[in-house]
Amino acid sequence: MALDPPHRIASADRIAPAGPKAAGAPRRRPASFSIGHVTGIDIRVHVTFFLIVALFAFATWSTGIVGGMVWLVIIFACIVVHELAHSLVARRRGAVVHEIVLLPIGGVSKLEHLPESPADEFAIAIVGPLASFGLAGFGALVALGLGVSLWPVDLATGSLLARLVWFNLLIGGFNLLPAFPMDGGRVLRSLLERHYDLEDATRIAARTGRAFAIGLAVVGILVDVWLVFIAVFVYFGATAEEQATIVHVRLRGVQLADVMLLDPTLIAPTMSVPELRALARRDPQRVFPVVGPGGYQGMVDATTAGVADAVGPVAAVARAVPVIAASSNLEEIAIPSVVGSSTAAVAVIDAGRVVGLLRIEDVEHLLTDISQAAAHPTRTQATPAARPTRSRQ
Ligand SMILES: [Zn+2]
Question: How far away, in angstroms, is 99 Cα from ligand 1 center?
């Protein structure tokens, strides 16, 4: 099939958890802008999308730029339909759908509380390719009715209707390949989960994806270099999915109390900043919850610039940082709170009392330990992650 690069670039998609990033990186809003809402789902276009617009304009400059742009709009409408299918089924099964972002490499559905049962994963993954096949079937019926020929396959200069049919067949088929990060990888994992736990099923599916990518790269070297690019995307996508899933699985076995600093040093709002500096020299805690008669008031970081020169009470330099409840889920609540916080630690509250401190370095150590354990799959350690916590005497 004669394909020009943009079709292939646009043919992959991902279902990305929008919840806390297991990698611990602060969540930043992607450089994208909204082009509208469908059933409350924000459809956004990433700024790099303009690269594709420019590429298309360049490629179709001589043959008809208007037709080229119309085809580009159709391509991305087809990808939106594919992503919406994922999102709507996910929502019906309990996920919170934030947005769909269109990237040059395809679409990404940002979901939270993604249901994790194999049946849910199967349904959410399979419906995207099915939607693409449905569009292809619909286009084929219209073509049949109008007497438009679908043959020969030509995604560059064929009729728009024929291109729509073949493009959707291509997207549906490509995404069904049994390799992460394609939908077919998720379908494969959900089927493997009948016999394996999530971690093992993920490892097998990721290995399958990498083996497939290597095969694809070999074919690509012989046939078409674009296949090599796709192979690289699949190879690293499989590994990224494997790592993210294993971190997620292992985080489930760790509680907030396992990671936080227990009984941290608290300071009174009336303490002077020079006293705080003296305290910070002998206490490695660095960030201190300020607790007055009425309870928690905020956090003060002894290493920030304002503290270095100030002389008044610490209340004047404390920051109003939200607290986390001791019962909070580590992955979904606690880690995002500290990662998104303006201070390097967040106070943990139980019954109105500060009982702990979750520091960014605790989270980083935990995630590093888990990632290293995930990279060396020895299943002897059931929960390798929990770092010993320091308890104050
Ligand atoms: Zn998909």
Answer: 14
Residue 331 has phi, psi (to 5 degrees) of -75, -40
Q: Please give the distance, rounded to the nearest whole angstrom, from the Cα atom of residue 153 to the centre of ligand 1.
A: 23
Q: Does 385 fall in a domain?
A: no
Banded pLDDT at 130 (limits 50, 70, 90): very high
Q: Can you tell me the distance from the alpha carbon of 88 to that of 254, in angstroms, rounded to the nearest whole number?
A: 31
Return d(Cα 205, Cα 186) in angstroms, integer: 8
Supply φ then ψ for residue 391, to 5 degrees. -110, 135
pLDDT tens per residue, range 107-125? 777 777 777 789 998 999 9
Same domain, 261 and 367: yes
Is there a single domain that holds both residue 297 and residue 239?
no
Domain span at 64: 5-251
| Distance between Cα 106 and ligand 1 center (Å) | 9
Q: 389: pLDDT confidence band, cut at 50, 70 and 90?
A: very low
HSE-CB of 73 using CA atoms within 13 angstroms:
7
Q: If you average pLDDT over every residue of the chain, what do you get? A: 79
